[in-house]
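Notes, p. 3: input format for complexes.
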Amino acid sequence: MLLGMDLTELQGALGGAPAFRAKQLYDALYRQRVESLEAVTALPAAMREGLAIGSLTASETYTSADGTTRYLLSLPADGKTVETVLMPDERRDTLCISSQVGCPVDCQFCLTAKMGLERNLTAGEIVGQVLYICSKHGLDPKSQHVNIVMMGMGEPLLNLKNVIKATKIICDDKGVGFSPRRMTISTSGIIPKIEELGKENLRPKLAISLNASTEEQRREIMPITRKYHLADLLEVCRAFPLKPREHITFEYVLLGGVNDSLADAKRVTKMLANIRAKVNLIALNPGPGIPYATPSEETVASFHAAVMEKLPCFVRKPRGRDIYAACGQLKKMAATEFVQIH
Ligand code: SAH
Ligand code: SF4
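Output follows (342 residues plus S-adenosyl-L-homocysteine):
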């Protein structure tokens, strides 16, 4: 499969053809987003023989009342599927992509966790999601109004090598053409990998799923905290090499009666005080078997106001809850399994 290959690898796939041939193929795959090699007429037919692009295809599509579309994209290597979500908005479109099939991190509030890890995605399968959505929806990757968030299925930092390789293609001017400033990677806090990411000169912006205001609370809802302690996570964030005007986003899923008190809000502002941080609050998106409640709007509003006193803070509006496309709801849920959750 050609998707995911860089120039050198493409040259190899072309049987050691001259470098300009690899450039033509790179351009066709990533910038022109061709769907079949027959369309790459610049390359002699003999060179195209035996090669396959490896594009993803939709096995299911669900459209929400709010315009969000959730795709189950089928991976040509083994027919497994991943979730990719497009959230159109007046000001910008947000494309949410996956990094793994399932997820090995056991967050207690997240449906994807219930799948466990099936496998890592290849760089080509990560790039393939972006290409699929851009083509399907006619999105211009160079537009200021399209963002990518790596917040779909999976823990991207447990697949860092492929994520970085995909990012290089997605953010290459001569490739897909997104700006790394419009791409965000979200992690549950894999400390050594955050350090590694910080050393990359081309990298997406960092978001941390904080979700708790104390070590004990975080251990309960995110058992990975036993391995990567909250204090150490904050320390690595403090040391993360930020670009001018760059922030780290801290996501905080509000779980009714668990982590949503004003005392929690105060502790959050305190622990983030010496980090260039902004906070994104997400009221729990419910799901079958998730043992938590969504807090009331008033609770969300008071938590928001308390954090806002010290830090920029936004409430993420739930998108596509009716089709199980919202944060933490990605689990290959089919329409027949949807239950009324509003
Ligand atoms: N694995 C990565 C990225 C995918 S999850 C991570 O955990 O950061 C993307 C975001 O959705 C995370 O911030 C996570 O805390 C949040 N999330 C997970 N389950 C949720 C749920 N049921 N309701 C609301 N947000 C949820
Ligand atoms: Fe994995 Fe993120 Fe879900 Fe945790 S919240 S289980 S890290 S996808």
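The pocket of S-adenosyl-L-homocysteine (ligand 1) is lined by residues 109-110, 151, 155, 186-188, 209, 211, 251, 253, 282, 284-285, 287, 290, 327-328 (CB under 6 Å).
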